[in-house]
């Protein structure tokens, strides 16, 4: 498996499934734990969906999706032609139809951010992926360990809380 990959995809909704499938295939082939792969798939889906919804394509008419494994970390990134606003985590209400994507990314990633270059905006996220961890079995995706809760007065998702690994694993 390659330590990194870059894919140019059409600025179209069908690109989300293509990117997710390729990312999962390559990360699993490299021995990344299935739980980390699941989290990376959610992150790449959210980042790419945001780019398609809010940003222009790159000058080529495409978006660039990339991932790289460095040490015990995997960085996933989506590059587009930029938007009128800066990518930022939303504060959706319970009835909002959108605005949760970067909050999900923030909950799953160790950290995330935005890079700007002329004609290009890249939103990236880094996941912890220890090389000495078993590749399959026994791992609970970070998404399954995270529970969102709302402030009863405002209805706004206010935070995330970690659940107990042992309870999730049944023991």
TrEMBL record:
CDD domains: HATPase_RsbW-like (cd16936)
InterPro entries from the UniProt entry: Anti-sigma-factor_SerPK (IPR050267), HATPase_C_sf (IPR036890), HATPase_dom (IPR003594)
Keyword Kinase: yes
Short name of any one Pfam family annotated for the protein: HATPase_c_2
Keywords tagged on the record: Kinase, Serine/threonine-protein kinase, Transferase
Molecular function as annotated in GO: protein serine/threonine kinase activity
Nuclease found in the keyword field: no
Domain Histidine kinase/HSP90-like ATPase: 10-126
Classification via PANTHER family: ANTI-SIGMA-F FACTOR RSBW, ANTI-SIGMA-F FACTOR RSBW-RELATED
Name of the molecule in the record: Anti-sigma regulatory factor (Ser/Thr protein kinase)
């Amino acid at each position: 498996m390659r330590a990194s990959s870059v894919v140019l995809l059409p600025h179209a909704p069908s690109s989300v499934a293509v990117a997710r499938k390729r990312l999962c295939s390559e990360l699993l082939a490299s021995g990344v734990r299935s739980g980390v792969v699941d989290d990376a798939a959610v992150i790449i889906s959210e980042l790419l969906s945001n780019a398609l919804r809010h940003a222009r394509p790159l000058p080529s008419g495409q978006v660039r999706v990339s991932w790289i494994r460095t040490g015990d970390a995997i960085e996933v990134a989506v590059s587009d032609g930029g938007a009128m606003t800066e990518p930022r985590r939303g504060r959706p209400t319970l009835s909002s139809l959108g605005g949760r994507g970067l909050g999900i990314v923030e909950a799953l990633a160790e950290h995330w951010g935005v890079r700007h270059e002329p004609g290009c905006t890249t939103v990236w996220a880094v996941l912890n992926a220890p090389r000495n961890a078993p590749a399959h079995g026994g791992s609970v995706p970070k998404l399954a360990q995270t529970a969102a809760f709302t402030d009863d007065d405002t209805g706004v998702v206010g935070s995330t809380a970690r659940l107990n690994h042992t309870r999730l694993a049944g023991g």
